[in-house]
């Protein structure tokens, strides 16, 4: 081999992603091993056994309801993905919680080291009821690719007050009369929300709904000590709540707190760097994109401090046209995952994955038209 050939081989080895085309192109069609656009929306990625596994909502061409279930893909480089099938299929049994045609969103999977099981959580709305039910769903599997076995759905921590409400706070909330706040968005109504009007409402069964806190857009976070937390949009999407999970990650312990009460946040994505917790959320504007929001805390129970929008670049004020769903931790790096929703043609929804940079310790998400995860 000539010296020139050796030099070329060395250069190829140094920049494998650039040469092989292994790059991520945010917002573009992303094909799997079959040449089909990846169908895994509102999801997450985990690393297990030397592979990455991507889980997400399977979207049909003409409806955002769940007609298939939660799909799974695998990869060794975060760029090339192999279709592994449907990890959690919907049911054809009439009246089943995850009956075909229900709303099943934001699936998140974590691995429990103690039980050696994969646990999936998701936002669930029963078939034919719109977004009235605001439930969580949970399923388990012995394999990362499934099949996952559905366990239950429900609301969170029925009959229990948040840990961050003192007895005096609880007394104030308990004295609030829901019947006096029929007109929403007034200053008095918002003040009552902050004080716990909807927390009190949902502690008990009402209007044909079960007791417990509402749970819509959500994520699951496993901390460095192995404790797991369910983070979800609650109180009619007005407040984020953080709830601790049991040791097997399949139920709640009863401990939970509120984050930014009354400020309307959804799509939470959480990660920790250098001992500080960061949470990226969005506002509530339906399928339309809006400005990303960011919070930090030194303790997962708070208090949480809000920071400016972390996005920088074209359409940063609209989160580049997307909405966050997850932050993937890879080695010493972090990847912000977001979805570009297309409700008129749901299966064509796109993905925005971008590396998170840090400026004086604060996360920054810069727009890139193309980038290689191997260069992180």
In short:
The chain is globular.
Task: Describe the protein's architecture and organization.
With 376 residues, this protein is mainly beta. The chain has a domain of 142 residues: 5 Propeller (Tachylectin-2, Chain A), CATH 2.115.10. The protein is 11% helix and 39% strand. It has five helices and 21 strands. The chain has a five-stranded mixed β-sheet, with no helix packed on it. It is globular and about 60 Å long. The N terminus is likely disordered.
Attribute tags:
Tachylectin-2, Chain A; Glyco_hydro_beta-prop_sf; hydrolase; 4-stranded antiparallel beta sheet; about 375 residues; 5-stranded mixed beta sheet; disordered N terminus; mainly beta
**Strands in their spatial order, largest beta sheet:** 17-21-20-19-18
Low-confidence stretches: 1-20
Task: Give the helices and strands as they follow along the chain.
Answer: HHEEEEEEEEHHHEEEEEEEEEEEEE
- Helix content range of the residues, please? 10-25%
């Amino acid at each position: 081999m000539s010296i020139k050939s050796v030099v070329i081989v060395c250069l190829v080895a140094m920049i494998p992603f650039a040469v092989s085309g292994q790059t991520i192109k945010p917002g573009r069609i992303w094909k799997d091993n079959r040449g089909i656009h990846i169908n895994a929306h509102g999801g997450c990625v985990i690393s297990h056994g030397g592979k990455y596994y991507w889980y997400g909502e399977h979207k049909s061409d003409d409806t955002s309801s769940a007609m298939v279930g939660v799909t799974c893909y695998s990869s060794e480089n975060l760029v090339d993905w192999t279709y592994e099938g449907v990890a959690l299929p919907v049911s054809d049994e009439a009246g089943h919680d995850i009956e075909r045609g229900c709303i099943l969103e934001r699936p998140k999977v974590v691995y429990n080291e103690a039980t050696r099981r994969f646990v999936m959580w998701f936002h669930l709305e029963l078939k034919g009821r719109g977004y009235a039910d605001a439930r969580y769903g949970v399923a388990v599997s012995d394999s990362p690719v499934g099949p996952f076995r559905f366990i239950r759905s429900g609301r969170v921590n029925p009959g229990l007050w948040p840990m961050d409400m003192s007895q005096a706070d609880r007394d104030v909330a308990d004295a609030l009369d829901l019947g006096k706040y029929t007109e929403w968005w007034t200053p008095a109504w918002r003040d009552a929300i902050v004080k716990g009007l909807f927390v009190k409402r949902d502690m008990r069964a009402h209007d044909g709904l079960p007791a417990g806190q509402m749970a819509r857009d959500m994520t699951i976070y496993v901390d460095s000590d192995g404790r797991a937390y369910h983070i979800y949009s609650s109180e009619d999407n007005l407040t984020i709540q953080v709830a601790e999970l049991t040791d097997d990650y399949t139920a709640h312990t009863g401990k939970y707190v509120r984050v930014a009460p009354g400020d309307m946040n959804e799509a939470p994505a959480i990660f920790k760097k250098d001992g500080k917790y960061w949470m990226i959320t969005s506002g509530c504007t339906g399928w339309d994109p809006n400005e990303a929001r960011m919070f930090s805390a030194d303790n997962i129970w708070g208090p949480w401090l809000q920071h400016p929008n972390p996005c920088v670049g074209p359409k940063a004020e609209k989160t580049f046209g997307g909405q966050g769903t997850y932050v993937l931790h890879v080695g010493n790096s972090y990847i912000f995952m977001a979805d570009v929703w297309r409700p008129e043609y749901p299966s064509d929804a796109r993905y925005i994955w971008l590396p998170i940079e840090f400026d004086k310790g604060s996360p920054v998400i810069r727009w890139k038209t193309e980038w290689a995860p191997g260069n992180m």
